[in-house]
Design a protein that fits this description.
With 738 residues, the chain is α/β, with parallel strands linked by helices. It is built from 23 helices and 26 strands. The protein is elongated.
Length: 738
């Protein structure tokens, strides 16, 4: 019965965690408490991908044919104004005289256009001769009731907001007030990344809801009163009998048909050039061309005509989700308004899944993903990493499946399904299985660690937990870096202190030095009185084990320099420490008896590190490293070559170095000069040029008093002057003690 209860509790726990992950994702993504804008930014990138993918599938490699088919069915035609139109006009400048626009209205109305909307703002009255053009345009507006004018929404802090209380006011457009004209706000709404994806149907200007340019044009198209705003019904905007799904509480998603100039653009000069208007070319050649003929007029029959600028100086170009043939994702503002209009006219809208449906899907996906992946990962297999790899693959496959499903739903049904939220749910569920496994195994591992950590280092404990088979006697042959340190004159220090004070000092010293070793991820082997023995490269392999040992040695000396003044204040001896470092092949592993063993290292390379620590006494150096260590760190540290030595028990000499610091440590010019003098003196010493060697060594010491070894060589050279070495002498110093 107890076993069944445990199974039930385990099952309920798993289900609870799965639902909890879903609730966490919902909290992060639904904006209940806060909004993670980065998630929205990534989601918007997937939106752009969906638009581009749908267009590529629809165009099928023939964008010209796709564009022509769309233009044939589109209810919107754009009259574009660019540099060529400016050059073709008699005025030769832009903005044009307002009577040009009056002529355009006449021609388009005669051609049968249902609505003529100006994506141009007439914010100030013309003066001088141009004032006559204003009068002509105003009279034309009185004559026709099919014109919509564009206005700009005032920016915050720009001197106040428009406060519309009567249609008799100008509304920021000099042609609005007198004739109760329809106006629409032309500002293009953009997302945080400056891309125009959404369109708001209205703005609050002053105390009134005012339609945007596309909605004002649609008001006129459907015969609604001026300044008619959309109604809100549930998750949609309603305009007459047209329902527009809301994407955000205040906007709908623009459903782009293609890149720039997917809509039909007709040049301004072609529309204005009838028999009663002469372009600059017609004036120059004295012949009427009349581009506004029957074929041009047929383009505007029963159409909504938008008139807007394509010139760069107008700065009415915006980023969109669509990528143009030139690789840019820019589109003229007038075409963005055209997209919004066409969307409404043909009911071509993107529907977004209800938030309740999305929330339910998140919870279901988290529950299914967590329990399913956890069940898979609990399969016992010899190579556990394969199971983990399969689980990760399934997680990625689920994310890819969500992505593909959302793209297909968008391309085939104009349905917008959020990609990031459910994908995040799957990823969190996968991470949740990792955390669950870790926590479920933690108790057992904690027991193992609690038992063994009293005897061996934490790094070894972790290695044993990960690989229990290593908890046996024996070892591996590896290239490691061994470290030995010892307190100089410790016997004398111990004799001058009480046992209690000595233990206190020693514990303080060992605690700080051990912390530095562990900081650089070394393995503490053991303490032998005041000596510290450690190594790098095991049990966890480290490619830079030699460098780690050197950096730890340097930091230990730096730390000791800060501890000595404190010890002096407390009446304690200012201890000095010597370190020996060597890199080489050694045996490392569990060694001892079946009931008691240590994780340690043995071998000639270990013994050499111990000898180097003791050899520091001969050169008054703090850190001595072998040539075997030096070859791994030569470009990372600064050293001073000490000698060729032959340690006790060895027949072959080795080159040793004094470790001074890292390669980027600051050095004075005197120290640099001293190093060069020392190196030259060492060369002369080995060439038996005693007098010259002594002179160089003394100069080096004068420039750098920390170059103690120079005095060692000066003394040796002085002795060799009196008693020259044998002919077979090769400069090697033979150590006769440990």
């Amino acid at each position: 019965m107890a076993a069944e209860q445990k199974k039930l509790i385990s099952l309920l726990t798993k289900l609870g965690i799965g639902l909890g992950i879903g609730a966490l994702v919902a909290l992060l993504t639904q904006g209940w408490l806060f909004e993670l804008t980065i998630l929205n930014d990534v989601e918007q990138l997937t939106t752009d991908y969906r638009f581009q993918t749908r267009y590529n599938n629809a165009a099928q490699g023939n964008p010209d044919q796709y564009r022509q088919q769309f233009q044939d069915r589109s209810s919107v035609v754009i009259v574009g104004i660019d540099e060529s139109d400016v050059k073709a006009m008699p005025s030769g400048r832009f903005p044009f005289p307002r009577d040009y626009y009056a002529h355009i209205v006449e021609n388009l109305t005669r051609a049968g256009a249902r609505v003529i909307a100006f994506d141009l703002t007439f914010t100030s009255a013309a003066t001088g001769e141009a004032a006559a053009g204003d009068s002509v345009f105003r009279e034309t507006l009185k004559k026709y009731d099919n014109v919509v004018l564009g206005v700009k929404k005032p920016e915050a802090g720009s001197g106040g907001r428009f406060a519309i209380r009567s249609l008799e006011e100008s509304y920021g457009n000099v042609f609005f007030g007198d004739n109760r004209r329809q106006v629409g706000i032309v500002n293009v709404l953009k997302d945080r990344d400056n891309v125009a994806r959404i369109y708001t149907p209205m703005y609050l200007v002053g105390e009134d809801l005012t339609p945007t340019f596309a909605l004002a044009t649609l008001d006129k198209y459907y015969g609604l009163p001026p300044l008619e705003a959309v109604q809100l019904q549930g998750n949609a905007f309603v305009l007459k009998d047209q329902t527009i799904p809301r994407y955000t509480p205040t906007s709908f998603l623009l459903n782009y048909y293609g890149p720039v100039e997917t809509f039909r653009y007709v040049p301004f000069q072609q529309v204005i050039d009838d028999s009663s208007f002469q372009t600059k070319d017609e004036i120059e050649i004295g012949e009427s061309l009349d581009q506004f003929d029957e074929s041009t007029m047929s383009l505007f029959k029963d159409k909504i005509v938008l008139i807007g600028s394509k010139m760069e100086e107008e700065q009415d170009i915006h980023k969109t989700p669509m990528v143009n043939p030139d690789g840019l994702n820019e589109m003229h503002g007038v075409e963005i308004h055209a997209t919004a209009i066409q969307n409404v006219v043909e009911g071509y809208h993107v529907s977004r899944a209800d938030r309740e449906v999305e929330l339910g899907f998140i919870l279901f996906a988290s529950l299914l993903s967590f329990t399913g992946l956890l069940q898979l990962k609990q399969i016992k297999f010899r190579f556990g990493w394969i199971v983990e790899l399969v689980a990760a693959g399934i997680m990625l496959a689920l994310v890819f499946g969500i992505f593909q499903f959302a793209v297909l739903a968008f391309s085939n049904g104009n349905s917008y399904i959020n990609i990031i939220n459910p994908s995040l749910t799957v990823v969190f569920s996968y991470v949740g299985t990792i955390v669950y496994q870790y926590l479920s195994e933690r108790q057992q591992k904690a027991l193992i660690k609690g038992v063994f950590s009293h005897y061996i280092s934490p790094a070894v404990v972790n290695e044993l937990i990960a690989n229990p088979e290593k908890a046996t006697l024996g070892g591996d042959k590896r290239e490691l870096t061994a470290f030995f340190s010892d307190i100089a004159g410790f016997t004398t220090i111990s004799e001058s202190m009480t046992p209690e004070a000595l233990v206190e000092l020693l514990n303080e010293y060992l605690d700080d030095m051990t912390g530095i070793i562990l900081k650089h991820q070394g393995t503490l082997d053991k303490y032998e009185g005041d000596a510290i023995i450690a190594f790098w490269g095991a049990p966890i392999p480290q490619k830079d084990h030699a460098l780690r040992a050197c950096l730890a040695s340097l930091e230990m000396q730096t730390r000791l320099a800060t501890m000595r003044p404190e010890w002096k204040k407390r009446g304690k001896p200012e201890i000095s420490v010597r370190c020996g470092v060597n890199t080489g092949w050694m045996i490392v592993g569990n060694m001892g008896g079946k009931d008691r063993f240590d994780y340690t290292m043995i071998g000639d390379s270990v013994n050499l590190a111990s000898r180097l620590e003791g050899a520091n006494k001969q050169y008054d150096s703090k850190i001595m490293i072998s040539e075997f260590t030096h070859k791994y760190v030569a470009d990372k540290v600064t050293v001073r070559e000490l000698d060729l030595i032959q340690v006790k028990g060895k027949n072959e000499p080795i080159k040793v170095f004094e470790l001074l610091g890292t390669s980027d440590m600051p050095r004075t010019q005197e120290q640099k000069d001293a190093t060069e003098l020392y190196q030259e003196g060492l060369k002369l010493y080995r060439e038996r040029k005693w007098d010259e060697a002594i002179a160089y060594m003394n100069q080096a010491y004068q420039l750098d008093p920390t170059c103690y070894v120079s005095q060692v060589y000066a003394q040796r050279a002085t002795l060799y002057q009196l008693n020259p070495p044998p002919d077979e002498w090769n400069g090697v110093f033979v150590m006769t003690t440990k």
